Amino acid sequence: MAQGNVSIYGIMDAAVSAVSTGQGGGSMKRLDSGVGPGSRLGFRGVEDLGGGLAGQFVLESGIAVDTGTSIPGGLAFGRQSWVGLKSENWTVSLGRQYSPMDDAVAFSSVNALYYWGSPLSMGFGSDAASHATPASGGFQSTDRISNSLAASRSVGNLTLKGIFVFNDEASSRTGRFLGLGGVYVDGPLRLDVAFNTWRQYASEINNPSSPDTERNWFVGGSYNFGSIKLNAGYYYFSPSSANKSLATASNFGTKAAWIGAKVPFGSSAISGQVMRADYKNLPGVEDGRATTVSLAYEYFLSKRTTLYCSMGSVENNATSAQKLFGGGASVVPANRGSNASAASLGMTLKF
Asked: What domain count does the chain have?
């Protein structure tokens, strides 16, 4: 008989934080969930079908440890929900799943999108559909992609990835999405590239019958010298201004670049990263600019339990309002031109 198994896994993360929303705002102490990795509960199953083929599924629910609520957006399995097939060197899956760009950005970040100052601040998880509701097809695109068909193929050190969506369910034309990615790994070297193109989501435009095309792309990588690991990334987002009611807050394009390093020593590690992001505004309005700084210290009590200190800040110019993100927690600047900062002491336990 075919052999199968189902495993339960998860992460619990919580931290005590001191945050500031900058000029025009204030400061406060609070309990945060997801300064480090986003807390989650997941179910993973694999069934051996014989001949090197296996069926697999993942159901993963996000949890706000501070309140016990489901995140993102109250969805029961909003982090991942998919089923598929795999062999030794290829996979095919259907459902709500991560885009190739999410993997590329995460592996090119100093702490895989964890801790204050994460590249999530630049907005690639909401750039395509910032007004989408949790129940809509564009929710968190171009990070997690709902209603998607994904596939991968590995040849030697190279893995090619693709993801496709027919539409966002609000119209037969809106939200049609294609994402491609490539990963090259050779010992300590990892290189990632990713590209997405899609038709505007219905939640973003006034005329869903004629959606325009939008795109983003990313290139990044890392190199592990043993005593230090270096990483870098560059992100570009090219939206369309067609079919939209334009305002001062409208984003006409994003460019973001970062560089970071992580140094392990004993049962600890220290890491830092600096990111610069530029946002194209309406003609006649100064372009937005934000500089994000991240610093983290980790102490590993075991392979599964980590204590950490995380600090981060975003310095916005007069026309920028970039948020400060951790793995899921965020600090929203009080106004355009306000800076955001945070410092946290926290704990992560993986199971």
From this structure: 1
Instruction: Provide the CATH number for the domain around residue 128.
Output: 2.40.160.10
**What does the DSSP 8-state code read for residue 202?**
G
Measured CA to CA, the distance from residue 344 to residue 348 in angstroms comes to 13
For residue 1, pLDDT beyond 60 = no
Give the gyration radius of the chain's Cα atoms: 20
> Is 151 domain-assigned?
yes
Q: What is d(CA 124, CA 287) in angstroms, rounded to the nearest whole number?
A: 18
The answer to whether residue 222 sits within a structural domain is: yes
* Location of structure tokens 């995380």: 310
**Distance (Å, whole) CA 317 – CA 290:** 6
Q: What is the pLDDT of residues 292-345, one digit of tens each?
A: 999 999 999 999 999 999 999 999 999 999 999 999 999 999 999 999 999 999
Would you give the distance in Å from CA 141 to the centre of its chain? Answer: 10
CB of 261 within 8 A of CB of 229? yes
Four-CA torsion 206, 209, 212, 216, nearest 10 degrees: 90
Tokens of 145: 């992609």
Range of the domain at 214: 19-34+91-350
- Helix, strand and coil content of the chain, in percent to the nearest 5, comes to 5, 55, 40
Residue 199 located in a structural domain? yes
